[in-house]
Write a structure and sequence with these properties.
24% of the residues lie in helices and 47% in strands. A hairpin with a 5-residue loop joins strand 1 and strand 2 (13-17). The protein has 346 residues and is of the alpha+beta class. It has helices at 24-69, 147-159, 273-282, 306-313, 323-329; strands at residues 3-7, 13-17, 71-83, 86-96, 104-105, 108-114, 119-125, 128-129, 133-143, 162-174, 181-192, 201-207, 218-226, 230-243, 246-258, 261-271, 288-300, 303-304, 316-322.
Length: 346
């Protein structure tokens, strides 16, 4: 309580009582009573700005970050019905999502390319609910858009331990009641390759003294390991066989379908017996012949699949064939071949 002196008409000084002095709290209350509407407008505007920023700025960024952090693992790939410019693809993939958000992704068109290369095809990625581990299945005919790029892809699949494939596209993402946002899907998935067909071998073979109508004079079984998740339909595959850089014949694997795991496949060969006899008689008297096998052709429904052919031609397998034992099995002593003279067929 404050007091103030005041002179009266008689000359006496009177003390007049003043109201209480307002502190900060009182002044604030008076201010709010007077300007509450202004503060309410400011609060609503600020809240609206923050919410809009969250919805239209932060949420799209969070969504894109979650897509970037997700994983893509191909668990199965089946390539069938190949033509020179297309194939049928059934691919199963697992999409990993470590985010607490599990959005819906619309179906979208995605490009496929060897890591860093040009797209060789486009596929339709189906709609997916991105849970912690979601399964996506592609089942469609695929048109090859860049034959050179697809050839490079197959060369890498055949000759590499691992193959990296880029999957790129744009799609809409839906999460709860947030507005739909568009995200870039840009993932690189790593798959095992055929690793130069390491382990390839002719596990057994027999010599036919009388050639068949198509010229086949050797039949047997070929072992081809496939460490990948890929099943590849390659048609009739032909290999050239070389002895000391000399072409001695061809081997055909009919209707070759490589499946994951170990593949044991029938083979049919047409071999120049004259060259083989001369080699055993003069150089490889133990009957053990070092043979180089190089891919040549891949033909499906009468059409050459050049993307497979280039891959096969880039790979050479070196094996040793025990021709001496095969000759003994048909009653011929390899040691006696020297006396037959050059140019004599079995």
């Amino acid at each position: 309580m404050a007091w103030e002196g005041k002179a009266s008409e008689t000359g006496h000084i009177e003390e007049v009582e003043l109201g209480p002095t307002l502190g900060f709290g009182g002044k604030l209350k008076n201010h709010l009573r007077k300007w509450w509407w202004l503060h309410l407008i400011f609060f609503i505007a600020s809240t609206l700005i923050i919410v809009l920023c969250l919805i239209y700025v932060a949420f799209p960024r969070i969504s894109q970050d979650n897509i970037n952090d997700s994983t893509l693992t191909v668990t199965s790939l089946v390539l069938s019905d190949p033509t020179p410019d297309s194939f049928h693809l059934v691919q199963t993939s697992t999409i990993g999502n470590g985010s607490p958000y599990h959005p819906q992704l619309d179906a979208f068109n995605a490009s496929l390319s060897l890591d860093g290369g040009n797209p060789y095809a486009y596929v339709e990625i189906p709609h997916v609910h991105a849970t912690a581990s979601a399964t996506s299945v592609i089942d469609q005919d695929v048109q090859i858009t860049d034959l050179g790029a697809f050839t490079d892809y197959n060369v890498n699949v055949l000759n590499s331990e691992e193959v990296k494939v880029d999957v790129k596209g744009r799609t809409n993402l839906h999460e709860m009641r947030f507005p739909t946002t568009t995200v870039n899907y840009d993932k690189t998935t790593t798959m095992k390759g055929l690793n130069k067909l390491a382990g390839f071998n002719v596990t057994s073979f027999q010599i036919e003294l009388t050639p068949e109508a198509d010229g086949t004079n050797m039949v047997g079984m070929v072992y081809i390991p496939n460490p990948t998740v890929m099943t590849l339909s390659m048609g009739n595959v032909t290999f050239n066989n070389f002895l000391d850089s000399t072409l001695i014949g061809t081997t055909t694997l009919s209707n070759l379908i490589l499946t994951p795991g170990n593949n044991t496949i029938p083979m049919r060969s047409t071999i120049n017996q004259t060259i083989v006899i001369e080699a055993i008689a003069t150089k490889y008297k133990d009957g053990m012949l070092p043979v180089n096998i190089v891919g040549n052709e891949s033909v499906y429904n009468g059409a050459h699949l050049t993307y497979f052919e280039k891959a096969l031609q880039s790979n050479t397998q070196s094996i040793t064939l025990d021709v001496g034992s095969a000759l003994k099995a048909v009653g011929i002593d390899p040691s006696s071949l020297a006396s037959l003279g050059g140019g004599t067929k079995i």
